[in-house]
Design goal:
By secondary structure, the chain is mainly β. 0% of the residues lie in helices and 54% in strands. It is built from no helices and eleven strands. Strands 2, 4, 5, 6, 9, 10 and 11 form a seven-stranded mixed β-sheet that branches. The protein has a four-stranded antiparallel β-sheet with strand order 1-3-8-7, with no helix packed on it. The N and C termini lie far apart (40 Å).
Length: 122
Amino acid sequence: QVQLVESGGGLVQPGGSLTLSCAASGSMFSVGGMGWYRQAPRKERELVALITSRGSTNYGDFVEGRFTISRDNTKNTIYLQMDSLKPEDTAVYYCNVMYWRDSQAGRPITLWGQGTQVTVSS
């Protein structure tokens, strides 16, 4: 069974920093893109940051240079360094991974973590 373990969420003051991590474990033939998405109350889930197996990254427009995503391919782990946090960043952050179970010829599988709460408030 493949599962994602997320950590690093919590309460932080505006302007503060927080680092999230997500580790994928289990039997995976190959791991593709991994990323973070978030969902705030009354808003749809949105992309925060994603990173491909080759290290290419994409960020949501709201990030504006404040966040940095990285990955360790050996450990199948991604990290999200968040700086200059704003109250509007408050949301549940979900890790996402795309992987192939047996080979890369078949259809990839998308897996979501259970989410970690990030609250930015004074």
